[in-house]
């Protein structure tokens, strides 16, 4: 089976990390007909770059003043956002021990100087293609096709890691379940296709409010969405849930068979501080009880506790 890739090779961004400008320019020229390239001149700059924008691959000079290539590689492989970026070292060192150090730091490959242009191009190309296939598989496994949000698989996969992190930092997890009110009637009145468009609009608003790097929105069921808000206490969770419910109300998406005459959301929210004592199911269950309460109290509102 051919796995559909998320973008083309020429759209990929390779970050070249080299303190020697001439050497960096040579690598950029060699790779110019394979992909897009940007250059930074130190490991520190590379880390800052990756915090703002994640490249598809890094070509790193092994020996740089200050933080060297090996340390940079170890650092990037530790971080969740950068752990899957292929890293290729360029080294003038032909010693076996240097090669071993590259592998041990987590590098995906290395090329030796003097550079053979064809070899560098093919290595970069092969690693980029593997990365594109991995990205495509990740999005097929973890993305909801209608809304582009994460799916339930992602939540199950992500929760153990997230809860370990929150435990270490002694921080709470905020979680909100949103459910579109009278959505069966919406489909019945306007048709399934319009129903899908309505879900896409709701998803857009939820994504907009998922502002911090580790916040996440998941399409949990048909018209049910879960928002994960790490490091967020009860008052923060309440504020965000209320803003989203109000925003959907303000959007004024017509719904003739709702008593509100527009599309609305109900929300059940929690903030759990002793996360180690609770499974994902327990946290969801608590939020779901609150959601049920919001529905009982007349919908278009948030219940938190
Ligand atoms: N258009 C569309 N509809 C969906 C999708 N997934 C689920 N639904 C519909 O969502 C509706 C949910 O109905 P209910 O669970 O009865 O909820 P409700 O009508 O919103 O009732 P309350 O939650 O009590 O306000 C069902 O009619 C499903 O067919 C989807 O992907 N697209």
From TrEMBL:
UniProt-recorded Gene Ontology molecular function terms: diguanylate cyclase activity
E.C. numbers: 2.7.7.65
Modified residues (4-aspartylphosphate): 61
Cofactor(s), by name: Mg(2+)
Reactions listed under catalytic activity: 2 GTP = 3',3'-c-di-GMP + 2 diphosphate
Keyword set, alphabetical order: Phosphoprotein
Stretches assigned to the GGDEF domain: 171-305
Gene3D superfamilies named among the record's database cross-references: 3.30.70.270, 3.40.50.2300
Domain Response regulatory: 13-128
Gene Ontology cellular component list: plasma membrane
Pfam families found in the cross-reference section: GGDEF, Response_reg
One annotated GO biological process: cell adhesion involved in single-species biofilm formation
Name assigned to this protein: diguanylate cyclase
